[in-house]
Amino acid sequence: MSRRTRILVLSLVAALGLFWVFWATVANNSGVSNKLVSYNVVDSTLATVDLAVTKDPATTAKCSLEAMNDSYAVVGYKVITIGPGGANTPDGRTMPVRAQVRTDSLAVTGVVEDCWIVQQP
Fold first, then answer.
1. How far apart are CA 44 and CA 35, in angstroms?
2. Which own/partner contact pairs does 2-9 have at CB distance under 8 Å and 24+ positions apart?
3. Where are the beta strands (DSSP E) in 1-121?
4. How many CA atoms lie within 13 A of 50 on its CB side?
5. CA 42 to chain centre
6. Which of 27, 43, 50, 92 is the most buried (most CB within 10 A)?
7. Phi and psi at residue 27, in whole multiples of 5°?
């Protein structure tokens, strides 16, 4: 390969790498993040999940929660809505949320599957 061809190929690889980094960090951002704080298995019909949801205070988000048994099978599922707000939180963006998830059998864990921003009409 000539020197000019090597420079062209390296430039193309660098440009594609930068594009991928941009896409992975900015374009793929849903505008909401979550952190599982704790869970509590109350009994064979109920589990509670505590999470912290970080989002713009003016937006509404939904999060899907799952309760799973010791075989990692889903025994309870619930989608919760987190409305606008956050003014009473220290940073104005992170809100503590507690949700109850009904279960079909005894769960051993509760998790946050996903969160997303709801587009308002």
1. 25
2. none
3. 32-43, 46-55, 60-68, 74-82, 94-102, 109-118
4. 6
5. 24
6. 50
7. -70, -25
